[in-house]
Design brief:
The chain is mainly alpha-helical. The protein folds into two domains: 49-157, Serine Threonine Protein Phosphatase 5, Tetratricopeptide repeat, CATH 1.25.40; 165-276, Alpha Horseshoe (Serine Threonine Protein Phosphatase 5, Tetratricopeptide repeat). It is 70% helix and 0% strand. The longest helix has 21 residues, at 90-110. The chain starts with a helix and ends with a helix.
């Protein structure tokens, strides 16, 4: 434990001592919001059963923490049934359904079942569009864009060419409605952290954008947003061959979700390469 603490402190000091483009120590890794807004991207009615809200958050955490998709499916189906008896407006009901389908799709995708993942990502998009029948809003556009970005990776090149540009356009549209929206800013940074340069990848810019977000948001982040920020920074650092710093950020991500398969796999690769 002491060795780990010294290694962590040494890395923080190393980051502070480096030049421009680094995440500053005062904003290092960010923090969780004390009062999360909503499991579906916007505040729900005060009449909504808090146990239902807690169950939606529990589903999110189970998916991000690597739960088995069969168990996730059972919980998701129960929550879908529960939306029928909750005090929800139509917009919020469809937003929640979109969120449930998105999480279920992520779970199947991580388990390697692309066919089921695609079906649920498409269902998430359908529900997001239903939530915007009376007009676009940031939560609805986010609920549309996140599964679309996943489908761009799962489907063929033609789908990617036709739909890939929509990801950044949608994020910018959200920011026009809600300047500083963390989810939209994460989408834009992810679009630079993960792809190769030929598809717009620019890890240095991704880090700078996350630095700006971490410094600007004193109220903290939803747990999944904070995880996405930390893995985005870690991935960008890894692309820049800064493995010690990437390891630090992947470990910070795993503090939120210790069972997350992506962060665990990337951290294992770093540790393997570090062996003599």
């Amino acid at each position: 434990m002491i060795g780990s603490m010294f290694r962590r402190l040494s890395l923080v000091l190393a980051i502070v001592s480096l030049g421009a483009g680094q995440i500053p120590a005062q904003a290092l890794t960010g923090r969780l919001a004390l009062s999360p807004r909503s499991p579906a991207g916007r505040p729900l009615s005060a009449e909504t059963d808090p146990r239902f809200v807690a169950s939606l958050y529990a589903l999110r955490d189970a998916v991000y923490d690597g739960a088995q998709p069969g168990e996730v499916e059972k919980t998701a189906q129960s929550l879908i049934e529960a939306t029928k008896i909750q005090a929800l407006g139509e917009t919020d009901r469809f937003l929640i359904l979109a969120r449930i389908e998105y999480l279920l799709a992520r779970s199947w995708n991580e388990a390697g079942d692309k066919k089921k993942a695609i079906l649920h990502f498409e269902a998430a998009m359908d529900n997001s569009l239903l939530s915007m029948e009376s007009g676009e809003h940031p939560a609805g556009i986010m609920a549309l864009t996140k599964p679309l970005s996943e489908l761009c990776l799962l489907k063929n090149m033609g789908f990617l060419i036709a739909n890939g540009p929509k990801i950044s356009r949608n994020a910018k549209k959200i920011l026009d409605m809600d300047a500083g929206h963390p989810g939209a800013l994460i989408i834009l940074a992810n679009a630079k952290a993960y792809p190769p340069a030929i598809f717009g990848g620019n890890p240095k810019e991704a880090m700078e954008e996350m630095e700006t977000l971490l410094k600007a948001r004193d109220e903290g982040f939803e747990k999944d947003d904070l995880f996405d920020i930390r893995t985005c920074v870690a991935t960008a650092l890894l692309k820049l061959d800064r493995e010690d710093e990437a390891r630090f950020w992947f470990e910070a991500a795993l503090e939120l979700y210790p069972g997350n398969k992506y962060a665990l796999a990337e951290l294992a690769k770093i540790k393997t390469r570090a062996k003599p």
